Each structure stands twice: as C-alpha cells, then as structure tokens.
Give the backbone structure.
Amino acid sequence: MLSRTDARPDRQQRRCQLGLLALASDHAIEEELRLFLPSARAALYTTRMPSADLYDAATLGATGTALEAAAALLVPASQLDVLAFGCTSAAILIGEAGLRARLARARPGAQATTPITAALAGLRALGARRLALLTPYIAPVHDSVAHYLEQQGLTLVDQRGLGLQRDAAISALPADDLVAAVLGMRRRGADAVFLSCTALRTATLLEPLEARLGLPVVSSNQALAWHALRLAGDHARVARRGLLLRRGDMQPVDLPIR
C-alpha cells in the first residue's frame, strides 16, 4: 500500500514549472514526462525545435540552432523553474556545458538541464560508477554517448546499440524487445543500467526491470523528470517509476563537466 507521501505531494508544495525544448521528431518525450511527473507536482510546457527524423551526428548536432527562438516561445513573460533541452545524444554532440549555458541565457532565472546532465546527476546520487549501457542508436551516435560517459569517470561493464536511425522507429520499439535487449546484456559488476534516449518508452518498464535485475535502471526521461523536480526544490517521492524517483532522500549531485 502506498504511503500518503507516495500517493500525493504535500499540499504546500509549489508545482514545478518545467519548460521543455523537444525535438520535432520525438514521438515519446512529452507522454513519458507526463507519466514520470505527477500533474500535481509539475506543469509541463513544451515547444518543438526543428529536427529531421534521422539519427546521425550531423543532424543531431544541428538541433541546437533554434534553441533561443524555441525557448522564447515557452509561456513568454512567465517564470520557469527549469528549462530542459530534450535530447540525450544531441546534448552530447552539441556540447553539454555550452548547451546548458545557452539555456540559462535563453531564460534567465530558470535552472538548466539536459537528459545527459540529469542522468549523470542521478547516477551519481545512486552511487553508480559501473554501468550497463543500452541505446537505440546507430554505432557512431552510440559510441559518442559511451565515450562521453567514460569521460565522466564511469565504467561500462557492457554496452549495446540497437542500430535504429529514426525517432519513429525508436518510439515504436516493442516493450518486449526492449526488455529482452536489457536482459541480454552482461551486468556482472554493474551498479546500474542506463537506457539512453528520450524517444524510448520506458516509464512502465523500469520497476519490473529493477525487480528482475536487482539493479537500478535509469532512463533519460526518468532522470530528466527527477532532476527537474529536484532543481525546483521538490524532494518528495514518485511511486512506481523506478528507484531514482522512488527515493525522496536522494539529492542531485552534478558531476563536473570535463
């Protein structure tokens, strides 16, 4: 049975005002974030940035060109608590540190995050240093994510890219196929599993996977929701959405950008 803390937030808790800059081609991120963010806890405002439905370094790297214009469309003249860029691999390819600085300039006063920023903070909060990494990407994009995680001091005990090149295919990946891919990875010595990509549908899969694996399973959208809440000062728990959100006592610990 859920405790009152799990079931609903404190009535005095102010709702997080989250502005999301999503890629035009992403089929899943808004639906996923609404599953990870209880409506009583967060208001989600979204705008889209131009992007082709194609995962390669050039296409992803170009997605930041409209960032400032897109940010200006998010409830103008309203104060956002958090502004989030909505693509894991693009944040890495554009440059996480520079991207966060641009987000901060685009909406002064808002905290800035990206899925990889959030994932690194969440993994650090979990004490996870050794990961099994699963991405849906083609090899060059997968490799950029794997390399970046290693640059941040994390060890990959196993890694796998699924070779999908379009957002539509990533979001349409059957849940059974995603679960089978995770279960097929080597996990000996891992502290956690990381599922990278905001186009992956993971919200209903994390807790069953954690029960089977005996490990935390962190996804891009889950981490983004968790980080946004914590940056907005909300430390209450969210039930049934994985250990990262279920643990209300964990604080965001940002790894330094290297």
